Amino acid sequence: MGRDKATLVFEGTTLVERVVAAVTPRCSPVFVIAAPGQPLPDLPAQVLRDEVRGVGPLVAVGRGLRAAADAGCQWAFVCAVDMPYLSADLIDMLADPAKRLGVDIVLPWDGRDHYLAGIYRTDLSSAIADLVAAGERSMRALADRVDTQRLVLDPQKALTNVNTPEDLP
Predict the structure, then answer these.
(1) pLDDT tens for residues 132-161?
(2) Structural domain boundaries of the chain?
(3) Could you give the count of Cα atoms lying within 13 Å of 124 in the half-sphere of its Cβ?
(4) Name one GO biological process term (predicted).
């Protein structure tokens, strides 16, 4: 895209600020994984820096899950920063099935998997480390390896993601 999505401004706020504000009512602590040297606004979240750029989301998710586990959390909502309409309601829809079913991951499915908008067990960080050591970089590799439940949903505005500035309404 040529520009950092986290700092894209939508309706007067950066995307990262919007996402942090959306998850904060349901998630504590909140972690933001950022690239090395990536400028971010001040956030009411703990910013963790990737050690290397361009290795895909799996490494970042593993780092975030380790941090959440170290903070005493059994579950974590994992999401991308490019979701301008994300809301706590989506987290609520996914959290109950995660606890009730006892699975490793609950993903929303509306015709496709949304790997970066799901509930994950924090103890998956070791499975992620094994996958990364084996050369895997995709979230699909993790979801295919562990007990994953897909929650079938009608299309949700909250699952909209932005890949280019033109995708912003």
Answers:
(1) 999 999 999 999 999 999 999 999 999 998
(2) 9-162
(3) 31
(4) Mo-molybdopterin cofactor biosynthetic process
